[in-house]
Every structure is written in C-alpha cells, then in structure tokens.
Amino acid sequence: MKLKQCGLIILFSLIVLIPSCNRKNNGHPNAIIIGISSDIDSYNPLFSYTVDEGNVSELLYLGLIDFNWDENSGEEIPRPMLAKDWQWNKDSTSITLDLRNDVYWSDGVQFTAADVVFSYDLYSDPAIQSSRYGFFKSFIADSAFRIDLNKTFIVENPFKIIINFKKGTLPNYLDFAIPLVPEHVFKNIDRKNLITVEKQMKPVTDGPFYLSKWDKNQAIILKANEKSFLHKPNGISELIFKIVPDYTSRLTQLKNGEIDLMEDIKAEDLNQLTDLSNIKLTKISGREYDYTAWSNIDPDAYQKNKKIIPNKLFGDKNVRQALTYAINRQEILHDFLKDHGELAAGPVAPIFKNNLDTLLKPLPYDPDKARKILAGEGWKDVNHTGVLEKNGQRFSFTLEIPSGNPRRVFAASVIKNDLKQIGIEVKIESLEPQVFFQKVFSHQFNSWMAGWSVAIPLDLRSFWYSDLQNTPMNFSCYQNKNADRLINEVDHEKDKLKKHQLFKDLQDTIYNDNPVTFLYWINNNIAYSSRIQDINITALGAVYHCWNWSVKNN
Amino acid sequence: MLFKRVISSVVVLFLLISFLFFLLRLSPGDPSLKFISPELSPQLAAKVRESFNLNSPLLNQYKTFLINLMSGDFGISYTYRIPVFSVIMDFLPFTLIFSTLSFIIQITAGFFLSLISVKKIGGKLDKSFSRLSLIAYALPSFFLGVILILIFSSLLNIFPSSGISSFDTDSYNFLQRLADYSTHLVLPLITLSLSGIAVYYKYLRENLEDVYNKPFVLNLRANGCTEKEITRRHVIPNAINPLISVAGVELGLLFSGALITEVIFGLPGMGRLTVNAILTRDYPLVVGCTFISGALVIITNLIADVIKVKLDKRLLKGMLN
Amino acid sequence: MIGRIKIWHLILFIFVLLLAFRFMLILNSYILLGIYVGLLFKNYSEAISQLSFSLVDIVSSAFLVVLIPAWIIIFHARLKFLNQHVTFTKLVIIILIVFFLYAPIITNANPGFQQNISETRLLPPLSSIEVIHLRNQKAKEQNIFIRFINKKDEVVKNTFDESIVFADSIRLGSEAVIYQNGEQKIFPMDTILFSIGKPVITKKIFLFGTDEYGRDIFSRLVYGARISLFVGLGSVLVSLLLGLSLGFLAAYPGGLIDTCISRITDMFLSFPAIFFVILILALFGNSLFTVIIVLGFSGWMSLFKIVRSEVISLKNKDYFFSAKMAGLSGYKILTKEVLPLILAPVIVNLVFQYGSVILAEAALSYLGLGTGSFYPSWGAMIESGQNYLTQAWWMIIPPGLCLFFTLYAANSLGKEINLFFNPRLKND
C-alpha cells in the first residue's frame, strides 16, 4: 500500500510540474496582451461604464466620427470614421453626413443610415437605461429624453443622413462619436429585456476587431477583422485583455513578457522598469486629480431643511485660501508620487492648453501666510491649547477619506500634520467607498478627500454650477452667481476664441473663490513592450487607435 | 426523522434570506452608485433606481420578493444585469471542484498522518506531527498564501501567482489543459488545506488513540488478530464516526467559498462573488449567494448525518459477527 | 523549553530591561503627572480639556512599570502560577501582555509617526538614519500651563515632530548641510539645537525597518498587539454573554421558546460566519466597536449549545427538582448549579475562540474591513505589505510571525487547559 501511495504522489507531481516549464505565449506571435485589473460586465457600448468597457466596446463597434488629439491646442479634433464627410448648415442647427458604403457587419449585412437612426433610438430610450441615457441635450427629444426620430433624422438615401438639432442649443461633436449598433440584430428584441437578452447573443460587430472569445474573469480575446477599412496589413492579429486582479502579479507578468501593456503603474515601481530593455515607458497626464473638499455650506442645516447657509469653518473664501497655503502639496507630490504629476491650480488640466489660464499658478506652501490670514479672519489660539478658536468655536473637524487608496491615506496624514502646525485639529476617518460616496452625494460631510477623472471635452458645469438639485456632483456646494453666468455663456458660445476666454474667466473666478483645495494632477504611468511599434499614446487613452499598431518580434 | 430535519432546514433557510432582505435594504449604501459619474447623465441613475424597485415601500418589495421566490426567481443582479442564478452558475462549479479537492486532500492527508503517528504513540514522529499540526493550525492562511507566492512564484517562478488558467488554452489538448489547471491550483490548495489537515489529524489521532486503549482491542489482540486487521476492521470504523459530523461542518464551510484564498490568488469563486456583491450593494446577488451557501452547508450536514447513521448500523452488524 | 527559569524571574527580567532603557521617559512621565496635578488645582477646566487617552495611557504605563514588579516581588512565594516554569507558550503570552500594557513605554514613539518620507520609507531592518535636532521655538514662560504643554510634548509622542529632520548624512560647517536622498538642504546654524557647545545629532535605529510611509514597523507591531488582544477580549466577552444568556433562556423554560431560539441559532450557524461579518461591517461601517460586536455575534453559537445541553440534562436530574421545590429562583439555579458544571468546557471554548477571533480580525484587516486606522493592526500590515512583497519582506514577516505565535500560544493554552480539566490517562 505504501508503494502505491508513493507512486501516486510522484505521478501527480509530474503532471503538475511539467507544464510549468513551458509558460510563454509562443502560440501567438502577432498578439498584444494588455493587462487589466478586473473583468468587464459587458462589451456592448449601450452598457459600457468603465474605461475598460469603453475600450473594448469602441474597438468592436464604430461611431460616425472619431477623434485625434492635438497636443498643441489641447483639444480633440474630429476625423471621419463611419461618416466620410459632413457639412453643417449656416446656423449650425443641422448637419449632413455622407456615410461609408464599404462597411459590413460581421454577419455580412451592410452598415446603413438605418443603423444610425436605430442606435440613437436605443441610446435615448428610457426602457433600455443605456449608459448614454439623458445625454443628448441638443437633440429634439420629449420630456423623458427620448429622441424624436422623425423630427431629428432625415434619411435621404442609405448612405446620406441629415440630423436636425434643437434650436438654441450648441451641438457637440461628442454626440456623434458614440459607437453604433446594428439595427437588424436588435430591432426584434423586447426593449425591456434587451440588457439581459443581448448577453446571450453572439456579438455582431463592424469594428477593426471582433470578439473571438470571452473567458469570464480570465481574458477577453479580440481578433483582427481583416475586412475592416481600418485594418492594417501588418497590424496586430490578436488583442487580448488579460485579467490579473493583483497589481504585483501584473507587474511581474509585464516584466517577464507575459503581458505587453500595463497602465496605472505606481510611481515607485517605475525605477525597476527603466532599466529593462524590452519595456518602454510613457504617461498620460492631466486626466485625473485629487482634491481636499471644504464644504462651502453647513451640512447640518442642509440635512434638516435644505437651507443653504455658509459653513461655520469653511464658509469664508479667505479661510479656504489659508488652508490651501497651509498644505504642503509639493511634499506629497514629491514623496509619494515621485513627481509624476503636477500641482493643480484649478479644475482645468494643463493639457487643455487653449483653455488654460496660464497666469494662474498653484499657491505656494506658506504656513506663516496661512496663520496671518486666519488671524485676520478672527481665528486665534486664545488659551494656548494649540487649537485656534473664534467666538467659542474650535477649528477642529473630521477629514473623511474613502478606504483602499494608499495615496489618499498618505496625503491625509500629511494634511493632518500640516494643519496641526498652524493650529487646526484634524481627525481622519476612513470609510468604505459605498458609504463614503453616498454621504458625499447627500452633502453630509464637512471635509473630505476624493478625486476626479476629467472628461474630454472640458466640462465645468457638472461640478461647479450652483443648482444643487441638477448638479449632483457639485459636492462642496459651491455657490457663485458670476460662475453660473459664465457657465451658461460657455454653453452657448459658438466663437472658439471667445469660448477660450470664457473658460479662462471661469477659472479665475474659481481660483479666487478656492472652493476646494486642488491637490495635484496625477500621471497615468504606462509601460509597454518594445514589441509594439507605431504606438502613439495620447490623452484620449492608452488603447486608443490601437489598430494602427504593429508587432515586431525579435 | 429525516423528513423533520429537511423541513426545519427549509424553514431556517427561509428565515435567513428574509433576514438578509431586510438587513440589506435598511442599511446605508446605494446600489445605483455605479450609474453616477461625471460622464453619465443624472437622469440615468434615477431611472435605474426605479428599475431596481427600490423606491416602493419596504413591505411591497418584500411581497414581490416572496412571490418571485416561489417560482424560483431570485431576480436580476444589479451589477451583471443577468439573472442571479446565471451569475452564480459561472462561479459555483469552480468553488465546488476546488472545495472538494481540498476536502479530499485534507481528509486523506490527515488520515494517513494520524495512522502513522498512532502506530507509535509518544514516539518521535507522533510528537513532531503534533507540534507541526499546532503550527499549521495557527498559521494564518493569508500569511501562508502570501509567503508561498513570494517563494514559489516571485523568487523561483515555478507556479503562477493568480488565476486558474493561462488564457491561451484553446490550443492545448485535454491533458495539457488539465496540467495547466493543476499548476494554477497547487499553491491555493496548499494554502487552503493546511489548517484543515491539522484539524482532521488532531481529531483522528485522539479518536484512534482512544479506541486503541479500549478493552476490546486488548481482547482482540489476545485472540490472535493481527495488528493490521485490528486497525482496519475495528479501530478505524470506530474512530471515524465522530469525525463525520466534523467533516460535514467543515465541508459546508469550505463550500461557502474559501474567501481569503480566493482573494489572494484571484480565483473566480463564490467567496469573492459574495463579497463583491456585498461591497457593491448588489442585493439580489447577495441574497442568491447566501441562499446557495446556506443550502450547501445544510445539505452537507444532512449527508454527514445520514452517513453517520448508516455507519452506525454497519458497525453494529460488524461487531456482532 | 527554557527549563529552569520561572515565570516571575522572566517578568522581573523584562521589567529591569524596561526600566534600564526607558528610565528618562518613565521619570518624565512622573514629572508630567506632578505638573498635571498642579494644573488641576490652579485651573481646573483647562486641565480637564487637556485630558486625553494618550496622556492617561503613558502615565498609567509608567506607574504599572513600577507597581507590578513590586507586587510580584512581594507575593511571588504565594502565587502558584508565578512559580511555574517558562515554556514557549507562556513566554509568548507574557510578552503579549507586556506589549499590551506598556506599548508607549516600550516603543517611545507613536505608531503613526512619519516624517521625511522620501528618507525613511522602505528601510530594511536594523537600518539607522541620522537625525539633526532643530532649536524649538517654545515659549519660555514659567506659567504652569506652558510647563505642562512642554513636558507633554516630551512624553506623549505625536505623529510628527517639527523639531527634527532626518538625513542620509550631515555635513557641518558655517551652516549645516544635510543630504536627503541625494538632495541638499541647508540649515543656518542658529536654527540648530546646541548642547554642550556641539550641535545635537543623534541616530535613529529602525529595529524591523519601515513601511511604505516611513513608519517604524516595530512600534506598529507593539501597538498592533493592543488591537488583537483588545478585540479578542471584547468579542469573547460578547460571545460569552450572548451564549450564556440565550442558552439559559432557551433551555430553562423549554418548549416553544427553545425551538425558536434553536432555529435562530441554526440559521446563524448555516450562514458562513465570515460573510455575515463582512456584511455587517460593509453595511454599517467598520469601527472598533462594530468589529468587536460582530465578531462576538459570530461565535456565541457553540457556547449556546454547551449551556443549553447542560441545562437540559440538568432539568432531568433529581436535585434540580428539589432545588426548585425549595424555592430557588432561576437566577440562583443558573449560578449555583449550572455554572460550575459548564465552567470547564466554556473556558476551553473561550480560549480557542480567542484565537479564532484574533485570526478573524487580522483577516478582516487584510480584506480592508478592519478596525479603522487609529491603531495599526497586524492583518492590515500584512495587507499593505503584500504590495511590496518582493522589495520589502520585513513588512510581512514580522506581523505574520506575531500573528502566528499568538495563535499558537492561544491554541496550546487551550489544549493545556483542556488537559487540566479532563486529565487523560497518559500512556507509559
């Protein structure tokens, strides 16, 4: 019996150990493997919410137009995709698009204008609850935001379509960049169950890649669609999104060649990558920033009867400015982010060069000035407790942070120490993200730290407009009539130069009011294998335009 | 008797998911958070919340929930947007296979180790195994898992550190695919099974020692039975009996998802699914996962009890011969 | 294992060590207490507002460091357990208790202390760093309040210290030039603290290295013991209360109540404990209090079963009837009859549960649902160390070993107590 046991054990070990000698992706010479941290929920553009979902859905389904990023002006420039050409009418209330007639869906049916009309119908239908529902503010729609198809779309022939917009609005190029879905596939499905039913259907796509296999929680395998007009003869034949939840494993796999591209690399790990000859580094900057929020209104009064009164501690803009002076943002940027980022002076990223007011510089770290300003506002350390007081109110509050983000934990303790030095007592509380965001949305906090990822194109209305009911993301409840006026003007301004100036004025206003302390713009550090050629990573995303890449194996 | 057990188990399950239902809806957290972001329109979140039926009064929601439950419908997962059971079916097979494998390893290893050590009670092997089992029991599984990854994955690069398969397995034949799965499962299985082996070893060894010391063993020896026969036909069956209920409980716990192991090694199992559902407030999925876990625990306990009863009958028969 | 040494020898040895290394700190704590008492008399309200947990903590530790050895020296002959021989288990338990009571004195630092992070992060064990002390701009008045504040800053450690700067190397000349990670910083001589004519430059040694924020791992280990022990104790108490009361409530009257409570218990048993814990913590936030309550809730079931079965078997005994006839109330029956019988299995159960609660707390911290960031927890240290697995093994190994030793000690203690209550016939 002992012999049998030993034999079994040896056999088992052999089976287990042999394949580990053979673990490189040698079966796929022209494949590029991108490491992502979690699986996507859907590849359908109707239901894409995360960045990864957006990447995959935009590679499978094309839109009417696409964008190039112009670094010099900091703007996105539209370029033709499914629409070869377009003309605006004189007052920009309608556009005529000429569509390509050489695009076919993967089941052989040709792409026509009917797909365009149908897609917009789906996107705006409340029964579907697509990710772009409620978006099309410049389109003629009813009260439930459903686009009125008859008034909006005129199909002259299968490859020529006219879109009419609502008078008095300024149409946005982004509205026709959305990926379109095939009419003939979706038109017979009950709208209410579409989200469930479509998951069980085989995808019908027209993009430069098609979905070859989706191994849940393992990998999403896309293969090149050779019939697509975007297909490059020596381009990548296979694009694989490999799901590796653990950051350290991802990094290890990047280093030994098992994955070819990885985003969001921590600043301290870049050193070990710079010396490797098979890895190249680049970055996307200005898409993400962290901020420390000071609630401009009193949260208790707001909770009780929705009254808007200034916050006892942070209601005054001078106090907020003093807080910005008191925080050593440079230290966090240098020590934690290793200078892979830059200090933020306002909500507009430095990459939007045309709209950036370059005269505004981030406030320097100056605790003495902070003390002076606070003293001027009446905050004094009356009884030498080390904490400032004014009219019996101690300058003491709780800084809330969402758990699970080391950068914010670090920044919070630096902020706590910095503010202690000028006499402000800060207690740090870390909450689970769900609970945290729910409370932030309902304006329950005095002060917190969070971050934003910035959309392209620039949008300031969603964050800084004072109407709290319609601007749920104005978390700090910033109230300024001048800013409101500027925001409204920006939405209606057609002249480009005037628009740039309006944005700069808006930044000035926000800068002077200092509603939150903008901390720093964080770089998205990207590393990719030197096997990838013809790659040009812009602010639009790491995987953007990846059909232009080619693979060179040594 | 069995029928009564089944009925009371069903009642218990029902209590469990009702309790959970109310707990989830009365606590802070918003499942529609995923649908709120600067890139989305605020009207979307409102519409989504409506579709989740979270705005109607609590008792109405409970009524709908119960009615759906009667027809076996647990609802649609908020995150995945497909029926809860389909989601669970994606994750359940792995958990079942993984837990069963680990269970087999634990029982077998614990069994053989205790047999070896009981041959010479108080000897060197016995003492060292006892101490080792205490060590194995005290070693936190996440610590062990992280150390194993450090040694075998990062330093020696023998085993992969996460996942259950390499992605390019469509080009492999069956044997290679099996081997690929095995490499991925070695470290997780060790992490999960070690403390279990210690538990079974301890139980078995105590029971075996007890039985060896009973008078009837002396009797058998005096009658001329060989040591092997004594062990195989008399001692082991007597010792196994109390082990079965323990095994039942442990297996039930295993089925509920070896959560920590799954998190460390990134395995697609029920444990991770449940925790993620809790963290994203995916209420239907949480209720569904809990139901499955609870059902598995109850079923394994029932099976353990049945086996125990059958074994008792056989023991009685065997001893009378 | 260590054979000859008795427990009280060991304890005294530890205290002698403490007193030797931390003499100044302990003395300063007494002085602080003296000033505080003076402040109480002079300005009552101010003194009360200055009262804080860390203050009470270090002063009481300073007192206990003298009281307990004195007590041991006086009573060592009388108490049996002090005269037992030291084993590995007992050693671990004693060290844990010492960590728990004397954390501020042992470490002489705040577990969250971080400064000049680019200098101090991810340093290997036993690395040292140069420290240059700056002149502190403190008020020189003789006001008792100011004296109290100054002394307090010396004794109660903060998370940062503005009067010191860390450096790789320091060059003194007409001004002090310090090098941090290759960068230069210059300090004019009049900002530097002098003592006996020379600038004060000391060395700071990190016993177990630092983590990614530059915090000393040794201090975090010692304070982490507090969390583990405290959470363990709290949860076990909660379990005990719940198990006892529910067991008695269910078994004594019997009948329908018994069935109901038993079913509810079964319900809790069939729900995997860890999910339940995570659920409650995720839903209601994770503070120290919540964690203790929830972990207590996950462990009372086995106690319930023990108590219930005892009471049920008791109900069928003769002396029970006679006791009831004599008029003893339910409460008296519980304390006089039931408790002595269940004492043995309950204690064993509690000790094992203590171990599993500590493990559970560490696991929760590992998953990010721990007790919050006020005190470091061993599980959280392992979790953050996982990201630096290949670069900084010292972030994981020390807390992991601490956890392991604690669990090992708890389990072997449980085994020993079990043997004590149920002596088995040992084989020759």
Q: Would you mind describing this structure in some detail?
A:
Chain A is of the alpha+beta class. In chain A, about 30% of the residues lie in helices and about 20% in strands. Chain A folds into 3 domains: about 5-60 and about 205-260 and about 530-550, 3-Layer(aba) Sandwich (D-Maltodextrin-Binding Protein, domain 2), CATH 3.40.190; about 65-185, Alpha-Beta Complex (Dipeptide-binding Protein, domain 1), CATH 3.90.76; about 285-520, Roll (Dipeptide-binding Protein, domain 3). In chain A, strand 17 (about 395-400), helix 13 (about 405-420) and strand 18 form a beta-alpha-beta unit. Chain B is mostly helical and about 325 residues long. Chain B has a single domain, classed as MetI-like (MetI-like fold). Helix content of chain B is about 75%, strand content about 0%. Chain B contains 12 helices and no strands. With about 425 residues, chain C is mainly alpha-helical. Helices cover about 65% and strands about 10% of the residues of chain C. Chain C has a 3-stranded antiparallel β-sheet, with no helix packed on it. A 3-stranded antiparallel β-sheet of chain C has the order 3-4-5, with no helix packed on it. A two-stranded antiparallel sheet of chain C has the order 6-7. Chain C is elongated and about 95 Å long. At the A-B interface, helix 1, strand 10, helix 7 and helix 14 of A face helix 2 and helix 7 of B.
According to CATH, the homologous superfamily of the largest domain in chain A is Dipeptide-binding Protein, Domain 3
Radius of gyration of chain B: 25 Å
- Give the termini distance of chain A in whole angstroms: 53 Å
Sequence of secondary-structure elements of chain B: HHHHHHHHHHHH
Q: How many distinct beta strands of chain B?
A: 0
The percent range for helix content of chain A is 25-40%
So what's the overall shape of chain A? globular
Content-based structural category of chain A: alpha+beta
Count the beta strands of chain A: 23
CATH topology group of chain B: MetI-like fold
Helical/strand content category of chain B:
mainly alpha
Topology:
The complex is a heterotrimer of chains A (554), B (321) and C (428).
Chain A: H1 2-17, E1 31-36, H2 51-60, E2 65-70, E3 75-80, E4 83-88, E5 94-99, H3 113-124, H4 149-152, E6 153-157, E7 160-164, H5 183-186, H6 194-197, E8 209-215, E9 219-224, E10 238-243, H7 247-255, E11 261-262, H8 270-274, E12 279-284, E13 288-294, H9 299-305, H10 317-326, H11 329-335, E14 341-343, H12 367-376, E15 389-390, E16 393-394, E17 396-402, H13 406-421, E18 425-431, H14 433-441, E19 447-453, H15 461-464, H16 481-492, H17 496-513, E20 516-522, E21 524-529, E22 532-533, E23 550-551
Parallel strand pairs in A: 1-10, 1-11, 17-18, 17-19
Antiparallel strand pairs in A: 2-3, 4-5, 5-7, 6-7, 8-9, 9-10, 11-21, 12-21, 13-19, 13-20, 14-20, 15-16, 22-23
Chain B: H1 2-25, H2 42-51, H3 58-70, H4 84-119, H5 124-138, H6 141-155, H7 174-212, H8 215-223, H9 227-255, H10 259-265, H11 270-279, H12 283-320
Chain C: H1 7-21, H2 23-42, H3 44-50, H4 53-75, H5 88-107, H6 117-120, E1 127-133, H7 144-155, E2 164-167, E3 169-172, E4 175-180, E5 183-188, E6 194-195, E7 198-199, E8 201-206, H8 217-251, H9 255-270, H10 273-284, H11 288-297, H12 300-315, H13 318-326, H14 330-366, H15 378-386, H16 397-421
Antiparallel strand pairs in C: 1-2, 1-8, 3-4, 4-5, 6-7
Helix pairs in contact in C: 1-4, 1-5, 2-3, 2-4, 2-7, 4-5, 5-8, 5-16, 8-9, 8-11, 8-12, 8-14, 10-11, 12-14, 14-15, 14-16, 15-16
